[in-house]
Amino acid sequence: MTEAAAVTEAAANIGVVGLAVMGANLARNLASREGNTVAVLNRSPERTDALVAEHPEAGFVPARTFDQFAASLARPRTAIIMVQAGAATDAVIDALVEVFEPGDIIVDGGNAFFPDTIRRERAVRETGINFVGAGISGGEEGALLGPSIMPGGSDEAWTTLGPILTSIAAVADGEPCVTHIGHDGAGHFVKMVHNGIEYADMQLIAEAYDLIRRGTGKSPAEIADVFAEWNRGELESYLIEITAEVLRQMDADTGRPLVDVILDQAGAKGTGAWTVQTALSLGVPVSGIAEATFARSLSSHPEQRAAAAQLPGPDEAFAPDDEAAFIEDVRQALYASKIVAYSQGFDEIRAGAAEYDWRIDLGAVSRIWRAGCIIRAQFLGRIAEAYAEQPELPLLMSAPYFAEALSRGQAAWRRVVIAATAAGIPAPAFSSSLAYYDGLRAERLPAALIQGQRDFFGAHSYRRVDRAGTFHTLWSGDRSEVQL
């Protein structure tokens, strides 16, 4: 019997292409669930052989070519691509289209930019093959044990794919953390915003740590205890939990806290920038996410930071009178700013759904983020409740629970921003979130002056508060007003 014939008889119900850590862990997760038989393929056969040898219990069906891979899959053939975004993804899609047939399903499980997913779905659809962009969150551990999954694609594809993804997803309160987000690029769009919120959440936590350390002089291990305590309350989340772990870690070489040895230049893979760029194009303010993204960029310019080291700052040392009260203020400011970040993220999802004609259930999105993903938190249950009570909620912050939490925490929030500013401690996510909050609350904004300026130099016109219509002032001469 030939190798190809031997593979054909296996009839796997799902395949994975790309067996780096994420792909290998996802394949292992799939294989561990009852009813799944997993075909595997990698560009370098050695990696395929190593995975099969290391995990004989998985019963993987290995393939060395795309022809063998397609032959090993039962119809409708379903394959999940776990390769680097960009050209590598396009190459694998092209190769699968060559060996798949109408009705088969290609799933991109990477962090693709959603316009690329829209383009790919449109192109693949012309062949009769289904293309699904699926956001998969949870990192290496989530891929292995149960991620939060955000698939887009057609209803037809979801019929086959839904049970498979449900079998491997994380579970929160008995519910699998997966739902059909919407058509074409909807899944990758929601995953992009998830990552943008993640940027904001991480920056806010980092600012809280920085303020406590500079303000109280506590060691990283002592601040870890603070975060561990916070994790037992309303801030309970994966990111707060791992923050305590990171702060406790000691460097084996130097004996110093690891956080003091790590270079203070934060990396980024693009999803934060995509979230901000897309929000700008949609006209949605996501200032907390934007400042978190810019903070990473600022950290990564050591030459500018060195040049700025000579610039003056406050003369007096920062020392809060009451350390315990200050730490509590920071906790409340963190929670309030977190509400803003999620509210802005859900605003962007709503705007994206309207722009691209996706029917995205915001409550369902919040529910599938309760487990498996990086931003999983107790907090998300409150968001799900808010959308269950009011599916068309125009502003998450205005839901009764969040409005009360903001009312309760705003005084502390203001004190923290004032203290940070007075001490010269950068807190861009805290301060921009508060400015956004106050901007929404304002009865009247200075945008009226901006409209006057725009009309002066560019005849852009303006509207009035006292009568309908569009107007332009003749700024030179008699400066009379004309209705357009």
Task: Give a structural overview.
It contains 21 helices and eleven strands. The strands form three sheets. The protein has a seven-stranded mixed beta sheet with strand order 3-2-1-4-5-6-7, sandwiched between helices. It has a two-stranded antiparallel sheet with strand order 8-9. A two-stranded antiparallel sheet has the order 10-11. Strand 1, helix 2 (21-32) and strand 2 form a beta-alpha-beta unit. It is globular. With 484 residues, the chain is an alpha/beta fold.
Q: Which helices and strands occur, and which strands form pairs?
A:
Elements: H1 3-8, E1 14-17, H2 21-32, E2 38-41, H3 45-54, E3 61-62, H4 66-71, E4 78-81, H5 87-99, E5 105-108, H6 114-125, E6 130-137, H7 139-145, E7 148-151, H8 155-168, E8 171-172, E9 175-176, H9 186-216, H10 220-230, H11 238-248, H12 258-261, H13 271-282, H14 287-299, H15 302-308, H16 323-356, H17 362-368, H18 379-389, H19 400-423, H20 428-441, H21 447-458, E10 471-473, E11 481-483
Helix pairs in contact: 2-7, 9-13, 9-14, 9-16, 10-11, 13-14, 13-16, 14-20, 16-19, 16-20, 17-18
Approximate strand percentage: 5-15%
**What kind of sheet is the major sheet?**
7 strands, mixed
Shape: globular
Any low-confidence stretches, pLDDT <50, length ≥5? 1-8
Number of strands: 11
N-end to C-end Cα span: 82 Å
The SS-based structural class is alpha/beta
The overall pLDDT, averaged over residues, is: 94
Number of helices: 21
Which strands sit side by side, in order, in the main sheet? 3-2-1-4-5-6-7
What portion of residues is helical? 55-70%
Q: What is Rg?
A: 26 Å
